[in-house]
Design a protein that fits this description.
By secondary structure, this protein is an alpha/beta fold. It is 26% helix and 21% strand. The protein contains 5 helices and 7 strands, in the order αβααββαβαβββ. The strands form 2 sheets. Strands 3-2-1-4 form a 4-stranded parallel sheet, with helices on both faces. Strand 6 (159-166) and strand 7 (172-178) form a beta hairpin. The protein starts with 26 loop residues before the first helix and ends with a strand.
């Protein structure tokens, strides 16, 4: 899941395949993901993703449909190093106990809270059973290196496929919901 958008996005640990997802973007991805993003209630981002998004999206042309969406959507940021005020409008720092803060956000009425990227954050949420749905974009690529979403330390979970779309470039957009057991 490391550095899908740009060659220089995240070269940690010598990862040299940045920008790998760009050639696979197509109208099917935009048509499928656009409405999902438009229904987002708020975003929950880790520090690295927040800083990367803030460095890019506010500076893009306003006619890009993602620009107003990302600028206007409430962004909650999980970080132990950032301090408020955060520079991107509609951004709030989640301080203190992250699982408790996310649980409180989930208990509020409203639309879904969406996490984009933010692998470390997602793994923390998984360990605390705070992820209800996964929307995975599975690309027809194997690198053998790079940061992974489902790496060591992720607890077992049973998922149910609720939707899938395959693009003309071979990307599978798979939506899974966590099955509650017991």
């Amino acid at each position: 899941m490391q550095a899908p958008g740009r060659p220089d996005e995240d070269p940690r640990d010598g990862f040299g395949h940045g920008g790998w997802a760009v050639p696979y973007s197509d109208e099917t991805i935009a048509r499928t993901m656009g409405p999902r993003m438009a229904e987002t209630g708020s975003l929950l981002l880790g520090r690295r993703t927040y800083e990367d998004f803030h460095g890019y999206w506010p500076h893009q042309p306003a006619d890009n449909p993602y620009v107003p969406l990302l600028n206007e959507t409430m962004k909650y940021v999980a970080s132990t190093t950032l301090t408020e005020p955060l520079p991107w409008r509609n951004s709030t720092l989640l301080a203190g106990d992250l699982p408790r803060a996310v649980t409180a956000l989930k208990e509020r009425p409203g639309k879904d809270i969406v996490v984009l990227g933010s692998g470390d954050l997602l793994r923390t949420l998984m360990r605390h059973d705070l992820v209800d749905e996964y929307v995975l974009l599975i690309h027809p690529l194997v690198f053998g290196s790079g940061r992974r979403l489902l790496g060591d330390g992720v607890p077992p979970a049973r998922l149910r496929l609720v939707d899938s779309v395959t693009t003309g470039t071979g990307v599978v957009l798979a939506t899974y919901r966590r099955e509650v057991t017991g």
